[in-house]
């Protein structure tokens, strides 16, 4: 045996008598087998998580990952305070983007002033269903009818105050100013439209000094108490979104408001399926005309109905 030991190299003898890994102690502070086992287990766990995430998450249609999930996938350690700060900034940035997306609204310049000082000037309008301006053919008919009813008594071009309710683009009130009215009040509840469309149209037609814009609901405006020295308006146009109002309630509010006088003319645009009331406070219905789906009712003093 001693002769055989002399023939076999010492390194080979050490390997041959080394115990198998299964016979080693299960816990060793710095043993190579324990370290390798931990690395292998960690690698298996990481691979399992990666496969799972790839299966359930699609970058195009999958759910949005939170900051914590992104850090976990990256396999790095980040202080808790930094994670909270990142989450806070992410939410803040998302809110800003959502607000900006809401404010992106398209406009066009398909409307124009028909006659008067600002004849032919283009007017801005919203390119969606939130604003439905009076058609040019209807607007032209309104002023032709009013002028015909006022003929021989007083002229529209001689002045007068106009109240444009649900004004939107302001096309009716601006048309009135262009044709000779001395002042116009515009009531529009949407702040963005009031600033970017209505006021822009008033400035573009050079009627800023003759105009007052009220950014509020029409119902709230009609319920206001009259200010000292505030007289009823000579003309009132009512062009609401068809589905947004109850016309009987609206006409009742208008009938009891200070804005209406015994000599006021009221122009109401409404859809054909609505039954409009016959009278409006002290006023009587002068006429009722139809333009496609749109109906036009004009109220005024009794003498105007006979003229």
From TrEMBL:
InterPro entries: RNA_MeTrfase_RsmD, SAM-dependent_MTases_sf. Keywords: Methyltransferase, Transferase. GO terms for biological process: rRNA methylation. The keyword Transferase applies. Signal peptide: none annotated. Pfam families: Cons_hypoth95. It comes from Adiantum capillus-veneris (Maidenhair fern). This is Uncharacterized protein. GO terms for molecular function: methyltransferase activity.
